[in-house]
Amino acid sequence: MKLRNALLAGLLGLACGPGAVMWAAAETRPVPTWVVDPAVPGDDLPPVGRSLFDQFFAVARNGQSAIELPFPFTALLARLDAQLVTDPGSALPPAKRVLIPLGRSLQRTAAAPDYFAFPRVVVAVDAENGPNTKFFLKDRLYLGYQEKSAVLEVISYNEAAGRFEFQLVKDYRAGGQPQVFYANRNLCFACHQNGSPIFSRALWDETNANPQVAALLTVEVATTRRRFYGIPVDRGIDIPYAIDNATERANGFALSQKLWREGCGDNGLPGRRCRAGLFTAALRHTLSGGQTWAPDANFSQNVIAPQRSEARRRWPGGLAVGNPDIPNRNPLQNVAEWPTEPAARIAHSHVAARFEPLAPRPPREIWQAEAPGALTTLVAGLAEFVSAPDRRQIEVALARLPDIATTQLTAPCRISANTPASRWSVNCASSAGPSLAGTLNLTAGRPNSGQLTRLTLPGGTALSNLDLVPIGPATANEASFTLRLGQQNPRSADGHTLGRLTVRRNASDPAVGEAVLDIRQDFTAIERAMTRLADSPQGETLFAARAIPRESLLAVLLAELGAPAPKPCCQAAQNLPAPRLEVPSAALGNLVSAPVEPTLQAFYPYCATCHQTAETFPPNFLTGNGAQVAARLRQCAPRLYVRLAMADLQPEQRDKTPMPPESMLPAFATHSDRWRNSAARKTLLAQVGDWLRAETGRSPNLNEMLAGGYEALRPCLPTTP
Question: Which of the residues 330, 496, 559, 689 could staple to 205 if both were Cys, CB 3.0 to 4.6 A apart?
Answer without folding.
Answer: 330
